[in-house]
Design brief:
Chain lengths: 530, 530
């Protein structure tokens, strides 16, 4: 069985210069595990970045097939850790084993999708415009363009996905796939899982002959290491999933550098769900059940948790409210990720329900003998109060949802128009009913990155058509997704080659199209050679 | 003949609330034209943004063919202004008539390319992943994604391209093509040209039935109006071409908003050219002639002007220096765009040549009886001095170039490694010689958005494979180009539609593929229906 090291992974070495250490907290038991973890020192940050910088040229120049082999090897090494990895995650996060097993599967699947993507190769968006030497008044040069990697990427592991958005998750996979070295700042809420995963990545890198520095991982239970990494001149982009406060701090830090760099921070969302009257009437029970399941899934610890449900006064509403609260009540309480997250949940929820006009429909009890359990809570408010109190649209991270009842469609539009940018919006209505509300469709479309019909926002499919991102403040950059193949676009930039000799061009741009990729040649899409 | 109005174009109305006015300066004559222009007041800014916000929903929902008709109509109305437009531009900018005629052609061509692009439609990058209702453990939903417009775009006209980077230029065209309203802040150095162009756009918008507010243009000879536009909550992105100081001021302003927005600022570049020894020997005269032409083209007032030329000590160097200075001396002096630009050129050039170790090889004289003429200047410095004085790599906007002579290849690499981000780098070498310098190719590739072989950086082809952009500080966002079809990607974001009814989807994502566009369907590129 693989032993947790507790030291910083600097290239292929372990390093623990700090005398200060921290330990893993077990939220379900309110105690600590034995291993100690060493926060990185400023010297260790410097060493790490120097190695990453050095690795970049070599790594970026490798054939895509070798980078793909590396990604596949990571998945093999992760699976080789076996149940020990899941059990450690269960201790450190309080998440149930089946969920963790599923999340590990998703993580491996994500990495394999990126391996496939770069093996196939068309993702580089090659464009070729051939020369017209005889054009008047000036000859047209030969121009060819493709996406290239940008350099070392700093990744902040998230608390709520110890695998899929952490050390080998949605940022690391595409950053490595594109040809960039990655430096992970491990999340202090699950350092043991991070340690085991880092070992898997390092093994995979060594086994597939990657240059040292292609991957490093540093510990810190404070903010010093993260700050130093974001401010380091060698860092070219940052991936982050977490709180608004954390995301905005990194974003501002990155903008204030001598050379500003992009920060892809996914920060939070209340994922409004709108139920139209006919849908409410015809599907009262099933909607209540589906929504209650989505609100309480994973103790509500998802960025896609439906925190606001809008509906209009109608005869079916009373029955829906009764069923919704009954369904919420039927879900067992669950452990939250950390003591801080649990306290924060309770205090934000209590602030929300303390507003005059907000009524608690149901509040679950935590089980005895379990620490850090979230009490699922459903509340109701009239739209007028919601409109007058902008803080009611702020995220309460946990199993909480607020039912906003509007007098009529006009009030619904007024309330929705006030919403800030979201990861998702959802509409419960059949096509015929929805078609009668064109303004509503526009309102919901413009406010989110993903618009769902007759479904809940939890569950983020890993595929090409997924956009997991949205207008500010749900993310810092609505143009990019963190999930699906297009996540790779965060860590590249285009480069044009003008009149280059064919022999010196990257394979993707050579006349012969040796990689057989799709290219836009003289404005036509083709896999043919030039 | 169309009369210059001098009032702000707020939707389909003219407005001149300010009592303060300014006039057009004629740089070649050092005097002012008669018409007066009214800076916009804060009220006028508010009216403008309210109209743009209102127009957005309608305009974004129009079929692409109608937006394309609008773009084509703009080109027709611009051409209908006839020579009066060119003559006014000649007065206001000092640029020669043939250049202005060419630039007008490029501007029209750019707009027509975007009309073609949106008529064809594949630019929306449609991705479709069809549902797998029977997938275990959870069914796969149907997901479809495409690029959508984002809202009102603020465009700052540039001083050095009165047509191609101004009112109807590289920002306005793609922003309108994508479905966004545009608000132009006219450059005060050519308000008359801006006025005539705005009239053409307004006529085209009315003729093709566009919603009022799809285009507005405001005047200001100070910074108040630009600041108010960038800070306005309805503004969703900013396009700017100009100085580092101006670009960074707008960038910081946009980052400090409650909702940060992207600023695409193209700010400057010295476009290093490297000449390898064999090329210098075999093409001594032609290189000197080509480079001298590029340095002095348009009085050096191009962001792609080659401000640094690197070479290594070799027997052919003395002859090259002699020829280079002779060729520069053979070019007639030319009027600069404004008195400020001319003064700035002289002072930055004088600062550069004042460094100990910098030697002037040639300095032209301004012609008698011509104001604001730039004296083309060629200087030389040894690489050691260049390496020790980072200010020597700062842009001198105008006909100036600095020849940096390196002792050997190692010193060349050291000097190049210090370079900041550039729009372009160029290499003068045949393929055989270039292949012997892999590290040099990497150094030049990583530092610029466009890498040119055996050509000069001036001349920016408008085509799909062009990347006119580059790492900071040449632009604020190296991921986007301002020239070519991909310029449209600056003004859109992706949106996913999950399990939407086919009848409610945008045409681009419907099963039948009514627009016949290329789509990535279940990870395969196809024009077929689903």
């Amino acid at each position: 069985m693989t032993t947790i090291q507790g030291k910083n992974f600097i290239g292929y070495s372990l390093s623990a210069l700090a005398t200060k250490t921290f330990r893993s907290y077990v939220p379900a038991q309110d105690n600590y595990l034995e291993e100690t973890f060493h926060p990185a020192t400023p010297d260790e940050v410097e060493q790490t970045m120097a190695l990453a910088e050095k690795a970049f040229d070599t790594y970026a120049s490798l054939p895509a097939s070798q980078r793909a082999d590396f990604l596949v090897a990571i998945t093999e090494e992760i699976m080789a850790l076996g149940d020990a990895l899941l059990e450690r995650a269960h201790l450190e996060t309080g998440l149930p084993m089946p969920r963790l097993q599923g999340e590990r599967g998703r993580t491996v699947n994500q990495l394999l999708q990126f391996a496939d993507l770069i093996r196939e190769g068309s993702w580089v968006e090659a464009r070729i415009d051939t020369a017209l030497p005889d054009r008047a008044p000036a000859p047209k040069p030969d121009l060819r363009k493709m996406l290239i990697p940008i350099g070392p990427i700093v990744v902040f592991g998230s608390s709520n996905f110890p695998f899929a958005y952490s050390v080998a998750g949605v940022d690391t996979g595409p950053a490595l796939a594109a040809g960039n070295p990655v430096i992970v700042k491990a999340h202090p809420a699950h350092p043991g899982v991070s340690d085991l995963t880092a070992q898997a990545i390092v093994k995979a890198a060594q086994r597939t002959g990657m240059p040292e520095g292609v991957f490093s991982m540093l510990y810190d239970d404070g903010h010093e290491v993260g700050t130093a990494l974001v401010q380091h001149p060698a860092t070219k982009a940052v991936g982050f999933t977490g709180s608004m406060k954390g995301g905005m701090a990194l974003y501002k830090m990155a903008m204030e550098r001598d050379e500003p760099i992009p920060v892809f921070a996914e920060m939070g969302s209340v994922n409004p769900v709108v139920i139209l009257p006919k849908a409410l009437e015809s599907r009262t029970e099933s909607l209540a059940k589906t929504l209650a399941g989505s609100v309480t899934l994973g103790a509500g610890q998802f960025c896609t948790n439906p925190g606001l449900v809008f509906t209009v006064q109608s005869p079916a509403l009373a029955q829906f409210e009764a069923s919704f609260q009954q369904e919420i009540a039927g879900v067992a309480s669950a452990t939250m990720l950390t003591a801080g997250i649990c306290q924060n949940y309770r205090s934000l929820r209590d602030e929300a329900v303390a507003h005059e006009g907000v009524k608690i429909l149901h509040r679950s009890e935590a089980e005895a003998n379990h620490s850090n359990q979230a009490e699922a809570t459903l509340a109701r408010v009239d739209a007028k109060t919601f409109i007058d109190n902008p803080t009611l649209q702020e995220e309460v991270f946990g199993p909480f949802s607020l039912l906003v009842v509007c007098e009529d469609t006009e009030e619904l539009y007024t309330a929705l128009a006030l919403l800030k940018g979201q990861l998702t919006t959802s509409l419960m209505a059949d096509a015929e009913e929805a078609a009668q509300y064109p303004q509503l469709l526009r309102l919901l479309t413009r406010r989110a990155g993903r618009f769902i019909m007759n479904g809940v926002p939890t569950g983020v499919e890993v595929c090409a058509a997924m956009h997991h991102g949205g207008p500010f403040p749900s993310t810092t950059d609505s143009r990019f997704t963190s999930v699906g193949r297009d996540a790779i676009l965060r860590f590249v930039r285009p480069q044009s080659f003008q009149d280059w000799d064919n022999s010196l061009l990257p394979a993707e741009l050579q006349n012969e199209n040796p990689r057989g990729i799709w290219r836009l040649v003289n404005n036509d899409w083709t896999q043919a050679h030039v």
